[in-house]
Amino acid sequence: MRGHGNLLGLYVPGRSVLHRAPLWLKVFMSLALSAVVLAARVPELTAVGLVAASLGLTLGARTPAAQLFRTVLPLLPVLGVLAVYHVIANGLLPAFVTTGNILTCVLAARTVTLTTPGQELLDGVVFVARPVRVVGGDPERFGLALSILLRSIPYLAGSLLDVRDAARARGLERSVRASVVPVVINAVAYAHRTGEALAARGLGEDDRPEDPGA
Fold first, then answer.
1. 163 in the same domain as 66
2. Count of domains for the chain
3. pLDDT given for residue 56 in this prediction
4. 89 burial class (0-12, 13-18, 19+ CB within 10 angstroms)?
5. Phi then psi for 213, rounded to 5 degrees?
6. Is residue 128 part of a domain?
7. CA angle 50, 51, 53 (to 5 degrees)
8. Are 19 and 56 in contact (CB under 8 A)?
9. Rounded to an integer, what distance in angstroms lies between the CA atom of residue 125 and that of residue 100?
10. Same domain as 100, residue 30
11. Do both 140 and 104 map to the same domain?
């Protein structure tokens, strides 16, 4: 199975200023930049936001320009279609504002994930989710579920691409059965292995005391 972790913009080790910055500060800066450009919706701030987000990756996180391009490459088809629609419907500047704001938000979020280890991100999520204890929730279980989700998406994306390539090599790229059935089988097998791994470690089980009257 090919690795597809970078589809999610996972952590890249480094010693940059942003790598050493606390998680709360990076999240605050990312949210603040995104909120400003989304609330203002003016071309000048969109341009400033794009420059700030790009500089945050290339200079603050010391990300090579090639890696920055790979970050936005999967978005280009969607952004291109969106830009064409807005140019036709609203004009050039609204199209720039809409697509530029989306790209700014993606780059700002990418800065956080690129400079923060996965476990630190999950610990932050668990910390934020602590108030759910009031209604009987379990922040640790929530963090575990999120961790499984983040690990599953790259695997399933890689499975889809591998099956598609295999079908194309056999001349079956137009066959729904050849493209879909193996992906479903791989997904079920992956879920089964994940469940077995959790059960072997005593995780994911309901550890609440049983009701004596049940």
1. no
2. 2
3. 87
4. exposed
5. -85, -5
6. no
7. 65
8. no
9. 28
10. yes
11. no
pTM: 0.68
What is the sign, positive or negative, of the torsion defined by CA atoms of 35, 40, 41, 44? Answer: negative
Residues 10 and 93 in one domain: yes
**What tokens does 117 get?**
């280890």
103 and 32 in one domain?
yes
Please tell me the predicted confidence (pLDDT) of residue 201. 63
Question: Is residue 124 included in any domain, yes or no?
Answer: no
- 34 vs 103: CA distance, rounded Å: 10
Length of the chain: 214
Residues 20 and 109 reside in one and the same domain: yes
Q: Are 204 and 144 in contact (CB under 8 A)?
A: yes
pLDDT at position 44? 95
**Average pLDDT estimate for 125-153:** 79
Tell me the pLDDT band of 75, cut-offs 50, 70 and 90.
confident
Task: Tell me the helix, strand and coil percentages in the chain, rounded to 5.
Answer: 80, 0, 20
Of 162-166, 190-194, 198-202, where does mean pLDDT reach its minimum?
198-202
What mean pLDDT, rounded, does the chain reach?
81
| Domain residue limits at 172 | 133-200
Q: Specify if 127 maps to a domain.
A: no
48 is written with which tokens?
A: 């400033």
